[in-house]
Design goal:
The protein is built from 3 helices and 6 strands; from the N terminus they run αββαββββα. With about 170 residues, the protein is α/β, with parallel strands linked by helices. Strands 1, 2, 3, 4, 5 and 6 form a 6-stranded mixed β-sheet that branches. About 15% of the residues are buried.
Length: about 170
């Protein structure tokens, strides 16, 4: 009888604790069921043709995999839109001979978030991240990997701002 009481108590305790905890501290209005990602534009001077589409798809994938929300082609309860405003490469760490040992790829994205249920949560923000690489490397051979790393960081920042009140 004592074991039965102990198991029931533990089950109740675990259920109580799990109902109080939200995964990653995510805060989504209960009535929100869908989200939309409007295809991001690319307004940067240096245009990588697939960057905007890749970014949009990666953002959709992140929200689908980390929330209970379903994707809607248009008019989602939560909506993300925006543009890539900067894609630049600049030298850093100058060395003798007017060369640079490292270069930096920087991407900046302006995002507008619309919440149909909580107008106070709507915002427009710029998110910027960078990755450094050795200037001796062939940029075209590492460009995709750098873009993936930077996109992942920016998407995490967007996710945190939208869903964790960051």
């Amino acid at each position: 009888m004592r074991n039965l009481f102990t198991y029931c108590f533990l089950a109740l305790l675990i259920t109580s604790i799990s109902s109080c905890y939200s995964f990653r501290g995510i805060s989504i209005p209960e009535e929100a069921k869908t989200f939309t990602v409007i295809q991001f534009d690319n307004y940067s001077v240096n245009v990588v043709p697939t960057l905007a589409q890749t970014f949009s798809e990666d953002l959709k994938r992140a929200i689908l995999s980390q929330t209970r929300l379903s994707y809607a082609q248009s008019e989602g309860d939560l909506e993300f839109s925006g543009a890539i405003t900067e894609y630049s490469i600049s030298p850093i760490a100058p060395q003798a001979g007017a060369t640079s040992q490292f270069s930096r790829l920087q991407i900046t994205v302006e995002v507008t978030y619309f919440n149909a249920y909580k107008e106070d949560d709507n915002w427009t923000s710029r998110f910027s991240r960078f990755a450094d690489y050795e200037s001796t490397q062939n940029f075209t051979s590492i460009q995709d990997a750098l873009i993936t790393d930077i996109n992942d960081q920016i998407i995490e920042d967007i996710f945190n701002r939208a869903f964790t009140n960051w």
